[in-house]
Amino acid sequence: MKSPMKIGLIGAGAISQAYIQALREVDVAQLGAVVDLCPERLSGLTESERCMGYVTVEELVAEDQCDAAIVCTPPNSHVEISRALLEAGIPVLCEKPLCFHRCDAEELIALAERQQVLFSMATKFRFVDDVIKARQKVLSGVVGDVQLLQNAFTARVDMSKRWNSKSEIAGGGVLIDNGTHSVDLVRYFLGPISAVQACEGRRIQNIPVEDNVQLITRTYHGVIGTIDLSWSLNKELATYIEVYGSQGTIRVGWKKSAYKMNSSSEWIEFGSGYNKVLAFQNQITNFCRAIRGTEEVMVTPEDALASVEVIEAAYQSLKQDQWVRLSERIPVA
Fold first, then answer.
1. CA separation for the pair 232, 205 (Å, rounded)
2. C-alpha triplet 181, 187, 188: angle, nearest 5°
3. Residue ranges of the chain with pLDDT lower than 50?
4. Domains and CATH numbers, the chain
5. How far is CA 284 from each of CA 57, 124, 135, 280, 308, rounded to the nearest angstrom?
6. What pTM value is reported for the model?
7. What pLDDT does residue 327 have?
């Protein structure tokens, strides 16, 4: 059995805590080092996790203290940090949103290819067991031909003092923050997206970015996906994905998931709901195994690029108040 890979965690903010917890539970990796600008936060982590600590990525690279890196910093720093790591030949798992513009994503993907190292985007919902099982049911034809997918990520969250609501840091508001998960889920279930239309609702919070958005996607096969995103209202739904097929319906929920055939009134449960830490464990395991060549990476560079392109097109749609077509095409079998 190979020894665990040493992971360099770039950024020690809120999202990094889920990675730290997950790294304690996986066999394929361990936390080797943390990079953060805050001395107090850094010293606390190096002591509690017994790992190395650095203020800059350059110091981490110079000390050769990691086999791979996970980037957990705010989005406006993703390109610069990922570039530095990739240039040093270090595989990178970068938190969503990957970046703000397609051209930057293309640059990083091309750099990773030249360096022959893995570059992937972190998007936790692909690693939720219930989501994986639901997609398997869709692909197996259990509910027939898919006619509609609905997704909702809505909650009341005070964003007035968070960097996520500062466009220069986050790239926008709820559309890029939560919407990146949504468009990736649509692609995961339905395939490439051909067009998108976004509509912003009334801003409820006193912040300079959108806090209520509805998004409609259309695939090349003509299947519609509808997405509700909000930081200011909570629809209090038990589910966050619903797939409607010609023969039945699948519901993926926070506490349980189930499907029902049109010919029956019985809901058949599967899975046990959303487990954030387990999803992160699955994500880290897949990333490390892909680096070692024992498993295919779940989120390909093409998936990461498409997520950036769709969100960029969605913002264009907001400005133009119309459908925007995308350049992505159906992969040739």
1. 7
2. 85
3. 333
4. 5-123 (3.40.50.720), 126-280+307-325 (3.30.360.10)
5. 20, 10, 20, 6, 22
6. 0.95
7. 78
